[in-house]
Amino acid sequence: NAGVTQTPKFRVLKTGQSMTLLCAQDMNHEYMYWYRQDPGMGLRLIHYSVGEGTTAKGEVPDGYNVSRLKKQNFLLGLESAAPSQTSVYFCASSYFVQGGNQPQHFGDGTRLSIL
Amino acid sequence: EDKVVQSPLSLVVHEGDTVTLNCSYEVTNFRSLLWYKQEKKAPTFLFMLTSSGIEKKSGRLSSILDKKELSSILNITATQTGDSAIYLCAVYNFNKFYFGSGTKLNVKP
């Protein structure tokens, strides 16, 4: 079982470059999330999606864009990378449950460094 | 502003000790509280709590929610070196999860 797969696992960018992080899940989950994790700050929500074709902003959306054209994929884009976006990025997915929730399943993360 | 606060931020214990990790929250429209364990990579799910006062147990780990005090604790008894990890608390409301900064537990042999 693949679960949640993130690509790439590591990447180094120069300031101003753009890139896209890909998240793929094979569990038919409706909800998908992008987080960033910085030392001492836990997981902060960047953007999320409650279904194919829908996206919404989280706590720290500035400098990022997302798309969910297919239910199984959730893409995170950095249009013009900045050193402040150096972080570990996690994707997660979960089932929709009416009036409640199911635990999230996480990918292994993408370590991104911006020079 | 919705927030989740965990304490302590870090903890060093010896094998066999019992530890208690704390999570308090101020989140509107609370639905559930979740605990995750994070070792080197992805957080892995431990417990989900929705009702106050009902303890969830899995082996040496247990957790309980107090909705009156807006808090939860995670207990680990007879700690082992394999328990060394960051423990994350998250609160769910509607579509979002709010995470605390985590407690880093180091269990020494």
Features of the shown structure:
heterodimer; A: 115 residues; mainly beta; seven-stranded mixed β-sheet; 11 strands; B: 109 residues; six-stranded mixed β-sheet; five-stranded antiparallel β-sheet; globular
Biggest beta-sheet profile of chain A: 7 strands, mixed
Largest sheet of chain B: 6 strands, mixed
Output the structural class of chain B.
mainly beta
Number of extended strands of chain A = 11
The helix/strand order of chain A is EEEEEEEEEEE
Proportion in β-strands of chain A: over 45%
Q: What is the residue-mean pLDDT of chain A, rounded to a whole number?
A: 92
Shape of chain A: globular
The percent range for helix content of chain A is: under 10%
Distance between the termini of chain B: 41 Å
Proportion of residues in extended strands of chain B? over 45%
**Parts with pLDDT < 50 across at least 5 consecutive residues of chain B:** none
Terminal residue distance of chain A: 35 Å
Average pLDDT taken over every residue of chain B:
93
Q: Roughly how much helix do the residues of chain B carry, as a percent range?
A: under 10%
Backbone shape of chain B: globular
Oligomeric status? heterodimer
Rg result of chain B = 13 Å
Greatest interface and its residue counts? A-B, 25 and 24 residues
SS class of chain A: mainly beta
Q: How do the SSEs of chain B run, as a string of H and E?
A: EEEEEEEEEEE
Kindly describe this structure.
The complex is a heterodimer of chains A (115) and B (109). Chain A has 115 residues and is mainly β. In chain A, 0% of the residues lie in helices and 52% in strands. Chain A has strands at 4-7, 10-13, 19-25, 31-37, 43-51, 54-57, 64-67, 73-78, 87-94, 105-106, 110-114. Chain A is globular and about 45 Å long. With 109 residues, chain B is mainly β. Helix content of chain B is 0%, strand content 61%. Chain B is built from no helices and 11 strands. Chain B has strands at residues 3-7, 10-14, 19-26, 32-38, 43-49, 56-58, 61-66, 71-76, 85-93, 96-99, 103-108. In chain B, a hairpin with a 2-residue loop joins strand 6 (56-58) and strand 7 (61-66). The termini of chain B are far apart. The mean pLDDT of chain B is 93. Classes of the chains: A mainly beta (115), B mainly beta (109). The interface between A and B is medium-sized, with 25 and 24 residues.
